[in-house]
Amino acid sequence: MRNLYLFIILFIALNAHAQVAVNTDGTAPDNSAMLDVKSTTRGFLAPRMTLAQRNAILNPASGLVVFQTNSSPGLYINSGTPAAPSWNLVGTNSGQWLNNGTSIYYNSGNVGIGTNAPAAPFHVANSSSGNAALFGSNIFGFPGTTSVSIGYDTGESLLYVGQSDNNKGYLIWNYNPDPALANFYIGTYSGSNPLILQPYNGKVGIGNGIPSGMLHVAKVSGTPTGIFGTPLSNFNSVTNLSVGDDAGTALLYVGQSEFYKGFLKWNYDPTPANAQFWIGSYNGSNPLIIQPEGGNVGIGTITPVSRLHVELDDNGLTFSGYSNIYTNYFYHAEVPVNGYGQTNLYSFRTRTSQNDGAGYAYNLSNSATKGFSFWGDLYSFGLSGFNYNDYTRCGGILGAEQGGFYWGSLGYRNSGSTSYGGYFTSYTIGGGKSSQADIGIGIGAWGDLMGADIHGKVYGIYAEGGNYAMYSNGVVFKNNLDVHLQENGTETNTVLYTNVSTDVTVQTSGYATLSDGKVSIDFDPAFAAAVSTETPVVVTVTPTGSSNGVYLAEVSGKGFKVAENNDGKSSVTISYIAIGKRAGYENPSLPREVISAGYNQNLARGLHNDADTHTNGEGLYYENGNLVVGKHASTLPDPNKPSEESVRPKPGVAAVNTQNSGSVDTPSGSRGQKGSTQNVPQVKKAIEDLSKPSAAGNPLPVKASGAVNSSSAGQSN
What we know:
Layout: H1 2-17, E1 20-22, E2 35-37, E3 48-49, H2 51-55, E4 65-68, E5 74-78, E6 87-90, E7 97-100, E8 103-106, E9 111-113, E10 122-124, E11 133-136, E12 148-151, E13 157-162, E14 168-174, E15 183-188, E16 204-206, E17 215-217, E18 226-229, E19 241-244, E20 250-255, E21 261-267, E22 276-281, E23 297-299, E24 308-313, E25 316-320, E26 328-332, E27 394-400, E28 407-413, E29 419-425, E30 483-486, E31 494-497, E32 505-513, E33 518-522, H3 525-530, E34 538-543, E35 550-555, E36 559-564, E37 573-581, H4 592-595, H5 599-606, E38 620-623, E39 626-629, H6 644-647
Parallel strand pairs: 1-2, 3-4, 9-10, 11-12, 16-17, 18-19, 23-24
Antiparallel strand pairs: 4-5, 5-6, 7-8, 13-14, 14-15, 20-21, 21-22, 24-25, 25-26, 27-28, 28-29, 30-31, 32-37, 33-36, 34-37, 35-36, 38-39
């Protein structure tokens, strides 16, 4: 009954005060405590149970405390919720935070901050905006991100990663009172260890979170991608790397030693427009190679199709290193709006003063364009020019004086659509020529065996001249008639044939009248000078009227005398013909091979029309007084000719001619004077004849109508 009374009193007190004090000295409970247990000789005893019993508690309240008697015994508190309890051991038992003076430490398991499942000995998680960790001052916060801040706003900040005092890497913020002037360093402590970013094929991005290369520097906020030196300019709409300075030469070296390296160089000039941009090797001893191993280089194009592809526009481009057949290919589609004088390849030669060549050999002559073929194989040439010759006044090759006053063309079609293998002229009809002296020669031909070899399927030679059509300084041989045509006022000329003789003779003729039956006649001075005195002149006299007949009373080289028979005294008229041997040609000596019956056959065998590629000429040469059908030994390939590699001409530094030193003047006047640049709109090419050259894979085709079978090695008409 007494105990029931005390419980009722205690229950009333609890409800009255909402606080309980358990002690032996009557001390009131602390204002902050609902239950204040006080003793110096006894402790507080929590409910005791096993791990299984603890886990069997239904919906344990958050903060519920029990003492677990097995499986890591100790005081446990539910730091979770009734629905998801999390029992944590409380106290200084093994595996918990321990004290060491004023320090605490942890000897087992993982520590989680912001996570209840730490995945590492120290795991800091961040599930909301703010810094995940701070070391020093909160330098800067990135809301909504996970970040770690290391540093102070009053001094340098360092993060070391390494294995010893002197062998470690670092991140350092190099402090400056003006934060905008401070620096951020990444490096190794003493510089003796290399700094490696993303080894083993990992990619490094600067300004790019998804790098596509080993080092990917992306453009950010309209600023230069990279600057080495002073920023030279600001390209707000492009990605750029700036190397250089506005007060001196800028250099970018790539190489393997001090003297063996390549460079990109901006050669400084106080006037920027006069500066130069160089690409080369340091001292010129190493070659400059662009896109080796089959790579193509494009200028004016981003899709080069040759080793060097230079594209002006749709109408002009150049392929260097184009193919095995056409190593270099130059293409130009002329646009009429660009006017006349257009050309596909222009070569210009000049000099500061007269600089003579030394001969006609390839290495002795000066030229604007030089073609040199080391091997004289069949159908191979030093220089060749081809033209479809669709129209007139065009040809394969033109050689001319710069003003066109005299010129020659190979493979020419004239204004009348007549085709010429070679066409040569030295005079024109028009102003500027008529008042000058005639000094030009249309064609000159010099040869050791023959001066000229001319064949015509229908006609051989047509010669026309004001003073003479043809002059032969030497013996003239003919194996057919010598025909003259005389105009007679009708539609047909009168045909005249030249007299022939087995002797070399000259003749004269005339009329005379007898006086008292006699006449003395002197030869024409030209005949008298031309007739030989070694043999008598043959004179034939014929009277033209009634007489007793006449006879030659006397004949000499000066003239002759005629008398009438029987001492007649008539005055009859006579006609006469006098024939004598030509002085100096009494016994002519002719080349025996020419007068031989087989001369024409020998010429036909030796000379050949090489347009006929099915047969070959046998060759001709004259040696020791004999004309031989065949090839002379000197014309055969030299078996001891050195290989091409040992003699081919290579570009080199020419010797300086002190007489010709000096600056090169800009051509002016009629010889290369610069004209104003026309502002011509770009014109697209029209649809082209696909059988003609094009820039795309069909550089120099043969017309379909005259296709060449490659297996025949050009043996086609």
